[in-house]
Amino acid sequence: MTSSTLLETPATAADHDCARAPRSLAGLTRDGLAAALLEIGAPERELRMRTAQLWHWIYHRGAASFDDMLNVSKVLRAQLAERFTLARPQIVTEQVSTDGTRKWLIRLAPSRESDRPAEVECVYIPDVDRGTLCVSSQVGCTLTCSFCHTGTQKFVRNLTAQEIISQLIIARDRIGDFPGLVPQDGKGSNSGSRLVTNIVFMGMGEPLYNLDSVVDAVSVLSDGDGLSLSRRRITVSTAGVVPKLPELGEKTGAMLAISLHAVRDDLRNTLVPLNKKYPIAALLQACRDYPGASNARRITFEYVMLKGINDSPADARELVRLLKGIPAKINLIPFNPWPETAYECSDDAVIEKFSDIVFNAGYASPVRTPRGRDILAACGQLKSETEKLRARALLAAGD
Ligand code: SAH
Predict the structure, then answer these.
(1) Entry's InterPro entries (predicted)?
(2) First to last CA, the chain
(3) Would the CB of 121 count as within 6 Å of ligand 1?
(4) Which of the following is catalytic: 94, 121, 163, 302?
(5) Range of 63's domain?
(6) Is 16 part of any known ligand binding site?
(7) 321 in a structural domain
(8) Would you place residue 9 in the very low, low, confident or very high pLDDT band (cuts 50, 70, 90)?
(9) For residue 379, how far is its CA from the centre of ligand 1 (angstroms)?
(10) Has 287 been labeled as part of a binding site?
(11) In a domain, 123, yes or no
């Protein structure tokens, strides 16, 4: 049975009053934390040590209150609490699919770029040997891929690094995946294996159009003293913003996934309009040059299976030909339908045939099992309530 819970009451205008709301430290980089400490007058010589303490409590233990920080002096705790919080963005709804997938609708506070509150979705997909968190990098998306539900939503703004990181903090809060708030004596600490083991930037948005925030977020997510996700377990997915690929590789060391979906430019131009700017040949050349790609660190090519559109054996053979020389694996994604779409998912037998051709050419070609379809949490089904909210705000403003 699908369950859906409204966790919080809807936000009021006062909740989003930037000037009055104290800033949260949860989700900041080390530099951000150091700056906050300086603001409350912490001595320079203690800065490294104090930052490390905050870091440990926020990212390792999951502290949601300064009172939890037992090895921080009471005076400093009080000073921090006077000026800052450890609040997470508000969870509007939490939905749990029959298969254990969870989807959160998260309300973000207004930012400088947008005076409106905005909402994003974040999905946790538990599996036998791993747990993957699918995070969003933008509110809405500019790409308008024709088969993607998110693409039908207007772009609102980029997420800050803090907002990206907060998605993992929220997930760990909700599924009990922080080692816990116990004294650091090594006893009683649930510090063993984590439930969220992998992060994929496959939620809403195009991560490479928000690269600075993604770079900062990956550095916090992968920090061994905190959230501790290995960079090899962080995958950034892109529709192919070619000029940004070298920087992504150099600055994050993250795994790369490319949303390819078609093997001919004319078709890809309609499915992924970004292709008109960066056609297939240029994209694949950037993949050949991607820093750190190797047989041990293969590039994933995502290929959505659309009935009668891109799923023929000839397409499969052309895919194999195109990827020659690239350390690659191919992820076949059955199309997830959404209301009003004209596309259909390829039949199972067709997907199997396609997968066999790719596999027999020497590439891993797993077919992704759709997860969380009943709660519209599967790939490309994410679409937040932002537009409704915006309409409501306009009404309230009397426009
Ligand atoms: N903009 C980035 C990140 C989004 S990832 C990118 O394009 O890679 C989301 C993945 O789900 C992409 O591979 C996207 O093409 C795929 N997808 C989108 N809509 C889908 C749908 N309806 N069914 C299956 N996969 C879909």
Answers:
(1) Aldolase_TIM, Methyltransferase_A, RlmN_N, RNA_MTrfase_RlmN, rRNA_lsu_MTrfase_RlmN/Cfr, rSAM, rSAM_sf
(2) 41
(3) no
(4) 121
(5) 27-85
(6) no
(7) no
(8) very low
(9) 5
(10) no
(11) no
Whether the CB-CB separation of 198 and 126 falls below 8 Å is answered with: no
Query: Is 239 near ligand 1, meaning CB less than 6 Å away?
Result: yes
Question: Domain of 80: which CATH number?
Answer: 1.10.150.530
Each residue of 132-164: b (16+ CB within 10 Å) or e?
A: bbbbbbbbbbebebbbbbbbbbebbbbbbbbbb
Q: What is the pLDDT of residues 203-242, one digit of tens each?
A: 999 999 999 999 999 999 999 999 999 999 999 999 999 9
Query: Atom 17 in ligand 1: which residue has the minimum CA distance?
Result: 380
**Residue 121 a catalytic site member:** yes
Residue type, 337: P
Distance 375 CA to ligand 1 centre (A): 17
Average pLDDT over residues 237-255: 97
Catalytic residue among 122, 134, 345, 379: 379
6-39 b/e with 16+ CB inside 10 Å = b?
eeeeeeeeebbeeeeeeebbbbbbbebbbebbee
pTM of the predicted model as reported, rounded to 2 decimal places: 0.90
How far is 288 from 285, CA to CA, in rounded Å? 5
Tokens 């519209």, residue located:
376
Phi and psi dihedrals of 184, rounded to 5? -85, 50
Rounded to the nearest angstrom, the distance between the alpha carbon of 148 and the centre of ligand 1 is: 6
Whether pLDDT at 388 is above 60? no
- The yes-or-no verdict on residue 389 having pLDDT over 50 is no
Tokens, residue 270: 């309609």
pLDDT at 390: 46
Domain count, the chain: 1
Q: In this predicted structure, what is the pLDDT of residue 187?
A: 44
Q: What is the 3-state secondary structure (H, E, C) of 349-377?
A: HHHHHHHHHHHHCCCCCCECCCCCHHHCC
The per-residue pLDDT for range 95-127, each reduced to its tens digit, is 999 989 999 999 998 876 666 678 999 999 999
Whether the per-residue pLDDT at 346 is higher than 60: the answer is yes
Distance in angstroms (rounded) separating the CA atoms of residues 179 and 186:
11
Give a yes or no: residue 37 inside a domain: yes
State the amino acid at position 86 in one-letter form: L
**Is 331 a residue whose pLDDT tops 90?**
yes
Residue 40 lies in a domain: yes
Which of 307, 380, 385, 388 is CA-nearest to residue 339? 380
Question: Where does residue 388 rank: exposed (0-12), middle (13-18), buried (19+ CB within 10 A)?
Answer: exposed
